[in-house]
Amino acid sequence: MRHSLRILSILLSLFVLISCDSTPEIPENDPGFSDYIAAHTAGVVSSSSSVQFHLMQDFNPGVEPGTAIEAELIEFEPEIEGTLIWADASTIVFTPAEPLQSGESYAGKFHLGALMEVPSALQTFEFLIQVIEQDFSVLSYQLNSMSNTNTKLNKLEGVVQSADVSNIDELSESITFSGLDGLTAKWETTNQTNRFTFTIDSVERREEGYEVEADFKGEILETMRIPGLAEFTVINVSVEQSPQQLVRVSFSDPLKTGQATQGLFTLNGQDVTSVNIEGSVATLYPSSRLNGEVPLIIREGVKNAMGYSFPKDFTTTVQFEARKPEIKFVDDGNIVPMTGKVSIPFQAVGLKAVDVRVYKIYTSNVHQFLQVNSLDGSNELRRVARPIHQQRVDLTGEGINYSEWTSFAIDLDKMIQRDPGAIYRIELSFRKSYSLYPCSEDETNAMSTSDDGGYEPNPDQFYAHYNDYYYVQGYDYRERDNPCHVSYYNSSRIIRKNVLATDLGLIVKGNDGDYEAYVTSLTNATGISGAEVVFFNYQGLEIAKATTNGDGVARINMDGVPFRAEARKGGQRAYLTLETSRALSVSNFDVSGVDVSDGIQAFMYGERGVWRPGDTVFLNAILNDKANPLPENHPLTLTVFNPEGKQIYRTTARRGTNTIFDFPFVTSREALTGSYRAQLTVGGKSFTKYLSIETILPNRYDIEVEATDEVVVAGTQSYLDVHAEWLTGAKASGAKVTMEGRLTRDYGAFSEFEGYTFFDQTRDVPNLSNHQFFDGSLDQEGNARVLPQLGNLRYAPGMLRLNIGTRVFEPGGRFSINSTSVQVAPFTSFVGVKMPETNDYGYLETEKKHTLQIRTLTPKGELTDGRVRVTISRVHWSWWWSARRGRSTYLNSDSKELIQSQTIEVEGGKGQMTFEIADNYWGRMLVEVEDLNSGHRTTSLAYIDWGYGRDRSGRGGGESVSILNVQTDKEKYNVGDVAKISVPSSAGGRLVLSIEDGTHQLMDKFVQTKDGMTVYELKITEEMAPNVFAHAMVIQPHDQTANDLPIRLYGIVPIMVEDPATHLTPVIEAPEKVRPESTFDVTVSEKDGKEMEYTIALVDEGLLGLTGFQTPDPWKYFYAKRSLGVRTWDMYDLVMNSFSGKIARMLAVGGDAALNPENEQNADRFKPVVIHLGPFKLNARQTAKHTVTLPNYIGRLRVMVVAGSDEEAYGQSFDNIRVVQPLMAQLTLPRVLGPGEHVSIPVTVFAMENNIRDVEVKLNTTGNLRLTDGTQRVRFTETGQKTIYFEADVPEALGLAKVTMVATSGRERSTDEIEISVRSPLQMQTQEFIIDVDKNETVEHAAAPFGVGESNSLVVEISSLPSVNLGDRLNYLIGYPHGCLEQTTSKCFAQLYLADWVELTTDQKGDAERFIREGIAKLRRMQMPSGGFRYWPSSNGADPWGSTYAGHFIIAAEKVGYNLPAGMKDGYLRFASQQAKSWNSSSYYTYNNDFNQAYRLYVLALAGKPEIGAMNRLRNKSTVSRQAALRLAAAFALVNEPDIAKEILAKEWSRPDANYYYYCYGSSTRDLAMQLETMNAIGNRSEALRLSRELAEKLNEGYQSTQSIAYSLFSLGQIYKESSSKLEVDVTINGELNQVNTDNAVVRIPIEDFETVQNIKVTNLRDAPIYTRILRSGVPHYGEEVPYSDRVDMTISYIDPNTNAPLDVSKLKIGTPIRAVVVLNRQYSSRDYDNLALTQIFPSGWEISNQRMMVTSGTGGNNLDYQDIRDDRVLSYFSMYRSYNSTVTITVDLTATYPGKWYLPPTTLEAMYNDAVKASNAGRWVEVVNE
Q: Which parts of the chain are coiled coil (predicted)?
């Protein structure tokens, strides 16, 4: 069977498996087994099947799935090797080690007595399984020419079906093709388990035809004729009987597409009017159903692809079958209104009788039944139901045509005594003796030799949960669909239905404790008064009840969540399950909006759209809790997370009485760049705002880009207008402009058509022919008009967006940016499709009607007439995977099977198509809808399969039939208006009209329906703002005959309401123009004198323009359309009717999409002009004045006021202030400088008034920058701007530089100042000098600095132990730039015992303690709810090794006195304990291997929570590694089992290879440190000391990873803190004496000033040697880098991003675009390369283009974990695996910006835990010139 819920081989009866003469003996078991065994595998099984036993009770509660069973519970004859496990607490599964032998019978024994105590007669249960005998058949084949014009070479293609599961290897070995001269078949799987396709390429058509035979085990499966070259003939004809009859005719030649086929094909004397041609195959669809042998005639007019006609008429006969015996229910309904007798209608064909069986679900068991079922469900029936009746019913009567579907009815009252409230399950089946299907005499005699089949119910063996599959004697898998064979008559033919007889119709509405119940008569649709409605929780406890009033309504407020409602009246009951997924579907209606169901809303806003690292973020929140008032002391908690998911800030405010809350926070200068997440938690609800932190520079131009047309339609002359001016107001005359474009899907297009897709998912977005479509200059007014070249968009997937990145350059090279997007319509009209809703399991069901909704639109989204073609096809998964990679031509391959095609005329832009898919077309379904007018195409993919638990006959209607088109007379209303609500209806029904909002029901009305339309007039009130929903439900009497519509129809329409009282209009009074550094007043009032709270922000428009920031508008947020918050449940879909459609419930709630998305030594590179004030409270009719003082700034400020009030009124306003003066001048510098570089410093001077003529400009520098000439003069003859340049050099030193500019003209003066960092892009290096000083000896050494100025440092390290290279290792560890779980833990672990054995100053001790506390806090933020820890804060799961490592640290930290956050340790121990208990791994090379388990057990023992059982299990494994054994020994030592520990250490354990370390970030050094720790734990002090010396020497050897360093220092600390090693040393440095007298093992003496030679003298005053290490650190000079490449090839190139041509970057003009491309390739495939970091540092004169700021930027890479973009560098993190991502390409877009001579540093790659993987190139000098 195909469906995943049907393939379980659980057969619930014993049956005969093969022919009588070889039938194995069927075991007969005691009926008493049914008290213990619920179900088991038996009968015919696949060779790949497992054997399962389901016990009646949970025998082994709490068992971990997969736990092995050691006892021999199951045995077979012949013997089967395999494994036995617990699948769950009541299920035992035996899995054979090898596939079962084809056709073999196995006698099985289940030793129940070995599992539990049972009576002696029930010790062993016997059973039998029969394996399907493998066989194959060729279903069809065809010959397809490889060229339409040359038919010599062809593909021979066909479909083969296997009897049992098979695979490509078996097919390749078992099936051979003769006569093909060595050609081999290529096999592929299909989406049907036992079907495969074969393709043989290059099959040659020769002069004469020949035959190809397909053979299996010497038996010919099919003979296929290959026609001669001159033959145009038919080579194969095949027939399909269902889901619709068709004939496939395979020709020798490809057929001409589009040819007229009328009259060319005849079936049974009738022309075939529906013919589909694809390749060489013509598919014929008969107009009516055919039976028996039918003549097929193909006329000579058929043409091949080359235009040649079929040579002569071809006649053959095809066999169509008579209808097979089958039964089905008329509809899916389960509820029968009590209008007298209870009749169950069904239909039958080809049968003279059926068997009827009835089971009863007792009233007392209904709740238990509904816990796992809907009313029509079948799960766990044996727990709640029992068989009560069985009989044969003859299908007799006058004039019955048994060859057609005929309706019958079962009178249930004649079979049973009905019990009110009980549910009855009806099963209908048939036997072979009931069949009227015509079979030959031999077939009839063969069937008569077998038992009549069928199934006799047994109350003690009722296993409907497993679908009652049984088979009969003589069953043959290949004959399962042959009505003339006994195999046809099996349990899959049974149909089933649950029935409840009642006249009570029940509807429930509600949300969050408030519920309304409506009880209505099903018979006449009137309300029923006096009915009791009871609500139960999931456990069956009554939580509320009420009685209906005269309208049949009961209103209930309850505590708790109801699971079920029950209506009672007299002896009748109605049941309704109130699970969310069972609510009525609302996806056909416009119910989307903001979710306010909990009554709390918050609007978060900032003062701008982007911040630099180090900036203050002024974040505010406006709270509305009117609907759910919070107490004044209720907390509002703001938490901010960085791009890696780390919490960086947290604060809490109290509710109080405020409306606006202030949450400012400061980012770190070293903060990661990217998208930060601010989360406000209040009242159990969270609100999120994303914040962009990027290394930005503010714009100095104001740039506007607009399209001349609202939508740019392809092929029209649509222009882009560009305007730019200086923020000071000066014209950007002649400024250089570049514009880049990138096309993307416009997912926001046509968003008002919710649920519709307007894209062809098989097509990719086309690339622009030229990425940079404009490179020119503005005119004298600062304007340019640009015609974008969009290229050929004919194959675009749908509506597009042209994302435009515009740069406007200043004369000095710096540029301002603007990101804009415009809509692009590739087509003149568009088609959209809305798929039907899936069922609860996420797929569409076969044998049900489904409706596609279709809309045709203009590019502006307006409905328009259209003509579309809808094609529905079944596709293989391989098709979809290929098509998604752009291989859309694959659409024409055989992987796509046409099901249905139809052309539809769409009137008024609205259309629909109803379709039904037959059972044998289950699988992936592709819907293609093509607009025949414009060529646009939309596609959608769905999965379609049999309904869960449905028999083959079950059918249902489409949901669209139950839908009402409810309308209102206006789109928007004001308070006080009257809305007219029109509901389509027929006379005599009842309209239940409910007015609902986002939280509750406001009112309901009951109206008698009128014929045609029922209209209700609704008065609009204040409480309805911003919108309500009119939910209309029309209930018709069950016995009405005026129409064939469902008994219940419903519809929902939104009613938009605007209340003027909700608006605030702040009024701002501010000067239009002010001077820099001036003080002025801003006054604020409310236009209508209303009370309000507000904030003020004055922000540089240059910052706001970077993101196109719009002033925040809280009114649009709070009064945006709200989603429907009331759910509705009813039972009417289950009422039997002439139609009983069941609406699927997936996607049942309106959308919640974001409503208002807004869009070294550190220098203060620029001081952002941001002034934030408030929040303030303004009383009614008052005005407030605020005094503002500006810094030295020129440009334009935006003044923004955002306001709110506790009366739920909101608003905003803004104004602009020019900050200018007659003379202004601005400096321009790069973001950073480097030693030895040369820079041209532009100064732009503005003369804003005519009296500015002669201007003197002076520059002064301090720090590391030297000017060539500090004074220049410039003359103006008119107003405008000019740029002059000052030349400067950077000395060979690091630090800060400051440039101060003063421009004067007469009495006017303008100043500017920039502070800039001088950094080296090269990495710090450390050089060491080691001296061993004997007792009473003095040694001297002269240490000279080697790095560039200001980068040098010196440390003298004295140790009583062999040097551990402490300083170098500790500096490397703490300064390591990355911060995953392991690195965060390592940095802390290393310092835990540092003060116990290293002499530290008070400040150093404080720094270490603070570092550890911060590390603990970081780890807490990386801890998951399970207690484990994430490797990266953004990871989805806990890292096995990292969690253990972090757990070890926090436990060790607590032991030395650090406080842990509440729950941190307990959570980890809970996680570790669970992991230890469930661990089961046999491989060394996994992330959760035996080493990790042993380490985990050690940490649990260290915490005092040992898992002894898990320790013993690991101890007794034979394949434990030596590393794991050492950890395990330490664990036993900690639990006072030293003998066991020594026993473990004495054994010889395995030693895995180096790849073992890959899974635990380890190394031999780290393992040595752990071994040292083990020896110390078991008390072997001498060995521990020996190992400590060996470990100290290891730390002197080359590269060590962060974990190796950390664990080594941690372990050494445990040894040395207990050692007595007094140091007495005199250290003299340049004449200054440092006396050392300490008991610590290590002393470090840093030298503050190391720019000159330091003379060092060390005198040892103790009686033992000391070990001295002199460490010099510094940044090397340029040109000393050495390229290297280990295990990875790194290629670096620079190209023009517009042409992809190589670019010589040695000398570039200002404005030149650059793309840096790094390609990394693995040199070896032996292992994965994890945790790689690529560091790209760029010249100071190049600007990085950040894709997060400009969508047209190409900065990025494939499969990156994270990318951090800084001022001068890009850090990229990723992994390279053997199976994928073995090649990584990283691109960075840049612009040559600042004139000067710059150093291009090396690009470096490193593996953070493996020094063997690394690469680097050498640096070089480059220039940027202003030409």
A: none
**Helix count and strand count (H, E) for the chain:** 19, 114
What are the pLDDT digits (tens) for 175-218?
999 888 878 899 988 867 688 999 998 898 888 889 999 999 88
- Helical residues (DSSP H) of 365-505, grouped into ranges: 366-372, 441-448
C-alpha 1519/C-alpha 1496 separation (Å) is 18
What average pLDDT does range 1348-1371 have in this prediction?
73
Q: Output the 3-class SS for 556-622.
A: EECCCCCCEEEEEECCEEEEEECCHHHCCCCCCCCCCCECCCCCCEEEEEECCCEECCCCEECEEEE
Which of 1788, 1764, 1771, 1786 has the alpha carbon at shortest distance from 1718? 1786
Residue 987 backbone class (left: φ over 0; alpha: ψ -120 to 50; beta: rest): beta
Query: Would the pTM of this model clear 0.85, i.e. be above it?
Result: no
Q: Pairing relation of β-strands 1073-1074 and 1210-1219?
A: parallel
* Mean local confidence (pLDDT), 707-731: 91
Whose CA is closest to 89, among 54, 141, 38, 49? 54
At 1584, list the tokens: 């521990």
Confidence of residue 884 (pLDDT cuts 50, 70, 90): very low
The strand pair at 937-945 and 844-845 is best described as parallel
Residue 1449 and residue 148: Cα distance in Å, rounded? Answer: 72
Polymer length of the chain: 1827
How far apart CA 1581 and CA 1584 sit, in angstroms, is 5
Q: Which long-range contacts (CB under 8 A, 24 or more apart) does 615-618 make?
A: 615/666, 615/667, 615/693, 615/1168, 615/1170, 616/664, 616/665, 616/666, 616/667, 616/1170, 617/664, 617/665, 617/666, 617/667, 617/691, 618/662, 618/664, 618/1097, 618/1170, 618/1172
Name the residue among 1604, 1492, 1498, 1495 with its Cα closest to residue 1559.
1492
Give residue-wise pLDDT tens across range 1202-1257.
999 999 999 999 999 999 999 999 999 998 999 999 999 999 999 999 999 999 99
- Using pLDDT thresholds of 50, 70 and 90, give the confidence band for residue 15: very low
Flag whether pLDDT at 1633 surpasses 80.
yes
Weakest mean pLDDT among 2-11, 221-230, 1044-1053: 2-11
pLDDT tens, residue by residue, 893-936: 345 678 888 999 999 999 999 998 887 777 778 999 999 999 99
- What distance, in Å, lies between the first and last C-alpha atoms of the chain? 76
Angle at the Cα of 967 (from 965 to 972), degrees rounded to 5? 145
Please, which residues have CB within 8 angstroms of residue 341's CB and are 6 or more apart in sequence? 411, 412, 413
Domains of the chain: 20-131 (2.60.40.3710), 136-320 (2.60.40.1220), 326-468+477-501 (no CATH), 504-594+976-1058+1123-1134 (no CATH), 613-690 (2.60.40.1930), 701-825 (2.60.40.1940), 830-950 (2.60.40.1930), 1223-1318 (2.60.40.10), 1324-1360+1621-1674 (2.60.120.380), 1364-1474+1518-1618 (1.50.10.20), 1684-1825 (2.60.40.690)
Could you list the beta-strand ranges (E) of 1268-1321.
Answer: 1271-1275, 1280-1289, 1295-1305, 1308-1318
Residue whose C-alpha is closest to residue 992's, from 964, 973, 972 = 964
Residues in a beta bridge with 1068: 1084
DSSP state of 133: P
In 3-state terms, what secondary structure has residue 110?
strand
H or E element that contains 1371: helix 1366-1374
The CA–CA distances, whole Å, from 1552 to 1488, 1495, 1520, 1600 equal 15, 17, 10, 20
Assess contact for 1408 and 1401: CB atoms under 8 A: no
Query: Cis bond leading into 1175, ω under 30°?
Result: yes
Residue 47, phi then psi, degrees to nearest 5: -65, -20
